[in-house]
Design brief:
This protein has one domain: Immunoglobulin-like, CATH 2.60.40.3880. It contains 1 helix and 8 strands; from the N terminus they run αββββββββ. It has a 5-stranded mixed beta sheet with strand order 2-8-7-4-5, with no helix packed on it. Strands 1-3-6 form a 3-stranded antiparallel beta sheet, with no helix packed on it.
Length: 174
Amino acid sequence: MLFFASGAALSACALLGGCIATDTIEFEPDENFPPSIVSQPNADFPLNAIGQINKDDPADRVEMPLQVIVRDPNFDQTLEYRIFLDSPPPPASEFPILSGDIDSSGSLERDSEFAIPYELLAPGICHKIELVVVGQFLNFVEPRRPVEPGDVDEVTWWVEVVDDDNPVIVQECR
């Protein structure tokens, strides 16, 4: 009896213009846009200038703030970052001094600030500090490579560091 009732209901649906979908519907995945990094408008160390730090200046801090805006149209995507200090040229090994996540903000722009401790910045030298942001890093063997090719942005700061014992920059920015 149950078979007859369900068969009658199915026939009625078919005759009355109803249809039963049996095909799988495939949706296109959301496009993954690469992140973009710019300086915050009032950054202490903007990307377009060589920074100056005097470690003996009492007004100076004990950390160098890196103040940026990370733009990413993929609002709900958590991003990963790595910061490198004075990285050797390839193929030498390099290791990030800082790494972590940049949480989604629900908007295009994510104000982010990272801090480099002064004890990592030797005086008398111009240091190169690089910030790499990706959707996800592939591994630590190639520490800058994203899982998805092209899903990366990278910016560089140059900063000259002096103190009373090292008032002259002996290693210039290069």
